[in-house]
Amino acid sequence: MPGVSSRSNSGPAQQVISMGVDSANLQLAVCTWCGGTGWEMVDGKGVRPCRCRISERRNQLLAAARIPKRYEACSMDNYIPQGSPRSQEFLSQAYALRDAKNFVDEYPIVDHGIVFFGPCGVGKTHLATAILRALVINKGVNCLFYDFRDLLKAIQDSYNPVSQTSESRVLAPVFEAEVLVLDELGASKPTDWVRDTMTQIVNTRYNDKKITIITTNFVDEPENPQEESLTDRVGVRLRSRLYEMCRNICIKGQDYRMILQENRGRRF
C-alpha cells in the first residue's frame, strides 16, 4: 500500500516482538508441576513421576488401543438404555451398564472377562470400548481393541510373500494386551482355520490369565431354531473355555440404528 514500507514487518522491533511471543509460548508449554523435568516434588517424600508424564503415557496407551474413530467417544455416561423403564429391553441394558461400571471399578481385582451377547444395535461395542477407555484413562491399563474380522484379515495378509509383517508380529500385541476386546466374535465363516485361530488366541490368553472382553450377535440358545448358536460358530471346545473365562451379559432391545433411520427427517 502507498506510504507503507515493505520492510516494516522485518525490522528489529518486530523480531523482538516475535521472540517474545515464542518465549511466552515456550513458557506456557512447560509443565507447571515439574518444569519439564518429568519429576514432581512431593513434600516430605522426595520425587515421583510427574502427572504430565502419566497423562502423556495414557494418551499413548489410548492411541495404541486401536479404538475405532466411531467409538472413540463412547463412555458409560453416554450409554443411554432405551425403552420403557420397566421393559426387559431397558432393564437388560441398564444392568449391562451397571456391570460394565462395576468391572472398571473393581479392576484389577477381577478374574473374569465379559461376553456381551445381543442383536445388532443394542450397544455391545459401545460398552466394550467404554470399558477400555475407562481402564486406560483412569487406571493406565494396556488395552487393545480388534474387530475379529479385521484381525483375521491382518493375519491372512501376513502370509503374503511381499508382506512387511508376520503372523507372530500381528498376534503379539493380541496375546500381550492386559485387556483385549474382540468385537464381533463368530461373525466370520467358521472354517477350520478360523476356529483354530480363535482357539489359539483364546487359549493363549487363558493360559496367561489375561482378561478378554468379547461381543457377539450369536447367543447360546437362539429363539429361532434356524439360527446358529455361538457354539455353532466357534465350536464346542472354545465355547466351553469362554464359559470359564468370561461372565455372560445378554443385552436385549431394538437396533438403535434402525430407530435413528426411522426418526431421521422427523423434525416436527
What does this protein structure show overall?
By secondary structure, the protein is an alpha/beta fold. The chain has a single domain (74-263), classed as Rossmann fold (3-Layer(aba) Sandwich). Helix content is 47%, strand content 13%. It has ten helices and seven strands. The protein has a five-stranded parallel β-sheet with strand order 4-5-6-3-7, with helices on both faces. A two-stranded antiparallel ribbon has the order 1-2. β1 (39-42) and β2 form a beta hairpin. The longest helix has 19 residues, at 88-106. The termini are far apart. Residues 1-10 and 12-28 have low confidence and may be disordered.
Number of strands: 7
The H-and-E topology, N to C, reads as HEEHHEHEHHEHEHHEH
Give the DSSP E fraction (strand runs of 2 or more residues).
5-15%
CATH topology: Rossmann fold
Helix content: 40-55%
CATH hierarchy class name: Alpha Beta
Mean pLDDT: 85
Return the domain count: 1
CATH superfamily: P-loop containing nucleotide triphosphate hydrolases
Distance between the termini: 54 Å
- Reading side by side through the largest sheet, how are the strands ordered? 4-5-6-3-7
| Uncertain spans | 1-10, 12-28
By CATH, the architecture is named 3-Layer(aba) Sandwich
Instruction: Tell me about the largest β-sheet.
Output: 5 strands, parallel
What sort of overall outline do the alpha carbons produce when their principal axes are compared?
globular
The helix tally amounts to 10
What is the rounded Rg? 25 Å
